[in-house]
Design a protein that fits this description.
This protein is an alpha+beta fold and 282 residues long. The chain has a 5-stranded antiparallel sheet with strand order 2-1-5-4-3. The termini are far apart.
Length: 282
Amino acid sequence: MDDEEMTPSAPGLGEYLRRRRSLIAAPDTSGSGRDSHRRVPGLRRQELAEIASISVEYYTRLEQGRAPRPSRDVLAALSRAFDLADAERDHLFRLAGELPPELPEPSRVVRPGLMRMMAHLDTVMPLTVHDGRLDVVAVNDAAAQMFGSVVGDGHFGRNIVYSAFTTRVFADRLDEDGATQLLRVGAAELRMALSRYPNDSYLTEMLIDLSARSPLFQEHWERGEVGAWRSAFKRIRHARLGWVDCETEMLHDPERDHWMMLYALQEHQPDDQVSSCRGMLE
């Protein structure tokens, strides 16, 4: 593989490589549980270079800060050799002046800690989670009470954008302005998802299906907008409470490409006086 680019590597890269190499347990060649011939902890440069399938001369220059900037292939090989976690790998790429690798696809599993947080918020705040494909992957009880079921039938039944353009699941819960906004944002978010996962067959098939099924989708798609909305005001017809005003905020878990939508609700009353979400749902 090509092991270098012309741009000089960052000074911190060599130090990081040295520290990571020192943390890898050296092979036991003496049968005593440790290699008594080693004067420093960790693997030798030769051993690390062999694992990463790069020349020891080039690896030595990387650690010494004398090598040109490593290619993405070399960085990926070093990440595997060091058995780096995702955050550690991303740090390595940034030290080398590269953007971290994109996920091949969103995770299908919600972090257990997030699931526990959602459960704790059941009596306080509705919360939904969707992935980078716009598929709903989790809702807490408060959100289920507010929306009812947000999961439909068929291959794209969990997808927010598909449901927005082909069903009344969300339209029946939003006022006219909110329903119009949802369609605009949905098409724009789908374009962003396709740009991040350009070879994703699920998203590509859904785009073809929506284009053939929904003239309204085609109209929004042809605008060429890209989604970037993270905060919004919505008026939602709560399944139990009636109309409520709602401030929404989206938080991102980049490691799994999951988006958490939090709904801070206020009861919509004729005199425009409102009460807090906690007061309504407790």
